[in-house]
Design brief:
Main location: membrane
Number of strands: 18
CATH topology of the domain at 22-51 and 85-161: Penicillin binding protein transpeptidase fold
Domain Glycosyl transferase family: 69-237
Pfam families: Transgly, Transpeptidase
CATH class of the domain at 22-51 and 85-161: Mainly Alpha
Radius of gyration: 38 Å
Keywords: Carboxypeptidase, Cell membrane, Cell shape, Cell wall biogenesis/degradation, Glycosyltransferase, Hydrolase, Membrane, Multifunctional enzyme, Peptidoglycan synthesis, Protease, Transferase, Transmembrane, Transmembrane helix
CATH architecture of the domain at 22-51 and 85-161: Orthogonal Bundle
Domain Penicillin-binding protein transpeptidase: 327-573
Structural class: alpha+beta
Strand content: 5-15%
CATH superfamily of the domain at 22-51 and 85-161: Biosynthetic peptidoglycan transglycosylase-like
């Protein structure tokens, strides 16, 4: 007969084998959860730093380029997103997002039961918070260690950030395929639209992609994407987020994908962008990858219309099959802002920037620096020197004999006004030797030439190697009345939130050359287009003079391997170099003409219908008409009369008597007016040489 155990013994057994373990387990669970929460609290708020695309803007704040590292990202607020897209994502990824604390227990249990029935893992239960944590901090490897870390980060996100912040972060970091991260990048890539411009149909299609960016890409697998889009629309309808009418319209709306995805768009001014990148690195001390993915907004000096004009002019003037290269730069002479630039004919083929990195002999474009030095040392536009073959004995005992183009000489005195317009080499070397070769070096350095310059007679003819950027900057000093010029491409840099990291300081410019002499030189440089100065040769700009509708100052230069044209208006300075990368001689006449033709067409194009602006004489300068041959004051008998400017007190006093017939009343009047003057600079130089 069985003996009944006391009731209290049953209680002891139950407590021992069931109650105590259960309480212990619950206690351990509570302790674990509390410890986890305390640990997460001690760790503090996790950083929400993320990669973003860096955007380049032109001077008129048009988007000219977008840079990113390996990932294409933008960051926008929830307010900037199409509301239906947000609802489509919530209905698809995490319907209980606003009700859980990072983990959806109900969804986890349902997924586990579903997986058990299917005997495999077929349904995920990750919340938006968990996915955001994974996107921010973790890899996508499927290990328990990664899952634990994901859980900790998810708890920390929910603990320290509100739901809107988490949702905004998720929608800006989720991957949509083809290198696009976040809804804005995806919207631009797939539809060439901003995220707030999407239709309901497009929004549902994008919401379909993250589940499997390759499998649901509408470019790669349109049918898969379309089926999932319709499922999402149906779920939104069941959830009361859209009406019957909206559902029907969205399902029937044709999907119009971008025919040329945005990331394959050709960048504007790629050589210029490289220069911007280098300048940005110096200004904010970041490396290239940090800049590209830092979400910066970089406001540049580029004038897109001028850039397009420069590129188009180059294409139209240089033969497509020619191997000749080009370096070109256009600048605001008052500020040094680079307005347009081309560093070569094909960036994809060669990113080497010939406007900045290449150094070539500038030829006669170097002469304006010499003639400024001459003006500082007593020359005037009327100073005459003999133009004939001349030998110069150098310090080492060798002999140097410069020659003019095609061996042409005047065999008589010519004025400085003619010498610069005709590009007389003998006049230039005589002047360089008379001033002392160090004078030209010092003057060029003062104007901004930084390259090494040998103090030799031939430097007057541009035998040193310099860059297009240096020459354009130095010419800008002449154009702006003698103030220093520092070329730059970046006006301002801000971070993704608009905080200014750098802004160009437009401080008062240092005066490096005399403004009166700068104007006198500027007017002398207009002579290359003035055919009244034709003499034993035509002026060097005669081939393009008839194409110009306004007054420009400039100088061309030619060596065996290089062809240059540099010039300016009061608003724009532009330099063009053409030649071969391997210093191959330029043999075709047409190829020597490229630089001038491109310069003339570009300058005319960028000024367009703008109001005419003349070079304004500075105080202390006076203009008189001279005979360009003799350099004396012109009379009615002179066939050519040229307006020339002089620093007050240095203008000619004698009248020209070359063209007046002997014995006429006019000749006698001029004889009476002309006074006997002491020996002039011309007499001294002719005696020396």
């Amino acid at each position: 007969m069985e003996q009944n155990l006391p009731r209290r013994n049953y209680k002891k057994i139950f407590w021992k084998w069931f109650g105590l373990p259960t309480v212990t387990l619950i206690g351990l669970l509570v302790l674990s959860v509390s410890s986890l929460l305390l640990y997460c609290y001690i760790l503090g708020a996790p950083s929400l730093q993320h990669q973003e695309n860096t955007v380049f803007y032109s001077h008129s704040q048009e988007v000219m380029a977008v840079e990113h590292g390996l990932e294409n990202r933008y960051w926008i607020s929830l307010d900037e997103m199409f509301p239906a897209f947000i609802q489509a994502t919530l209905q698809t990824e995490d319907r209980r997002f606003y009700k859980h604390f990072g983990f959806d227990i109900k969804r986890i249990v349902a997924a586990a039961l579903h997986d058990i029935r299917a005997m495999s893992k077929v349904q995920g239960a990750s919340t938006i918070t968990q996915q955001y944590a994974r996107n921010l901090y973790l890899s996508h490897e499927k290990t328990w260690a990664r899952k634990v870390k994901e859980a900790i980060y998810a708890v920390r996100l929910e603990m320290f950030y509100d739901k809107e912040k988490i949702l905004e972060g998720y929608l800006n970091t989720i991957y949509y395929g083809h290198g696009a991260y976040g809804i804005e990048a995806a919207s631009r890539y797939y539809f060439h639209k901003n995220a707030d411009e999407l239709t309901l149909s497009e929004a549902a299609l994008l919401a379909a992609v993250p589940k499997g960016p390759s499998y649901y890409s509408p470019y790669s697998h349109f049918d898969n994407a379309k089926r999932r889009q319709e499922l999402i629309l149906s779920n939104m309808h069941k959830g009361g987020k859209i009406s019957d009418k909206e559902l029907l319209k969205a399902k029937q709306e044709p999907i119009k994908l971008a025919t040329n995805p945005s990331r394959s768009k050709k960048n504007i001014a790629p050589y210029f962008q490289d220069l911007v990148m280098k300048e940005t690195m110096k200004k904010i001390n970041m490396d290239t990858e940090e800049i590209k993915s830092g979400g910066l907004h970089i406001y540049t000096t580029l004038d897109i219309s001028k850039q397009h004009k420069l590129e188009r002019t180059i294409r139209e003037n240089m033969e497509e099959d020619s191997e000749m290269q080009i370096g070109a730069m256009s600048m605001n002479p008052k500020t040094g802002a680079v307005l347009s630039m081309v560093g070569g004919r094909d960036y994809e083929e060669s990113p080497f920037n010939r406007a900045v990195q290449a150094k070539r002999m500038p030829g006669s474009t170097f002469k304006p620096f010499l003639y400024y030095a001459a003006l500082e040392n007593g020359y005037t536009p009327a100073t005459t020197l003999m133009s004939r073959p001349t030998y110069f004995e150098l310090e080492d005992g060798s002999v140097y004999e410069p020659s003019n183009y095609n061996g042409y000489y005047a065999y008589e005195p010519i004025t400085l006004a003619q010498a610069i317009a005709l590009s007389d080499n003998v006049y230039a070397v005589k002047t360089n030797v008379f001033l002392g070769e160090e004078t030209l070096v010092e003057t060029a350095k003062r104007m901004g030439i930084e390259s090494s310059l040998p103090a030799v007679p031939s430097l007057a003819l541009g035998t040193a190697s310099v860059s297009v950027e240096e020459m354009v900057s130095a010419y800008s000093v002449i154009a702006n009345g003698g103030k220093e010029v520092e070329p730059y491409t970046v006006e301002k840099i801000t971070d993704a939130h608009g905080h200014v990291l750098y802004e160009k300081e437009h401080k008062k410019k240092k005066q490096v050359i005399d403004p009166s002499l700068a104007f006198v030189l500027t007017h002398l440089m207009t002579g290359m287009f003035d055919q009244s100065l034709n003499d034993y040769m035509r002026v060097t700009g005669s081939s393009i003079a008839n194409d110009l509708t306004r007054t420009y100052a400039g100088k061309s230069g030619t060596t065996r391997t290089d062809s240059w044209m540099i010039g300016f208006s009061p608003k724009v300075t532009t330099g063009i170099w053409t030649g071969y990368d391997q210093n191959k001689p330029i043999e075709k006449t047409k190829e020597h003409q490229y630089a001038k033709d491109i310069w003339a067409e570009y300058m005319e194009g960028v000024h367009g219908k703008q109001a005419f602006e003349a070079f304004k004489p500075s105080d202390g300068v006076t203009g008189v008409y001279i005979d360009p041959n003799s350099g004396h004051l012109a009379t009615p008998y002179c066939p050519n009369q040229r307006l020339a400017y002089f620093v007050e007190g240095t203008e000619p006093e004698q009248y020209c008597d070359v063209h007046i017939p002997d014995g006429t009343e006019g000749y006698e009047n001029v004889e009476k007016k002309n006074k006997k003057n002491p020996k002039s600079m011309s007499d001294v130089l002719d005696w020396l040489f």
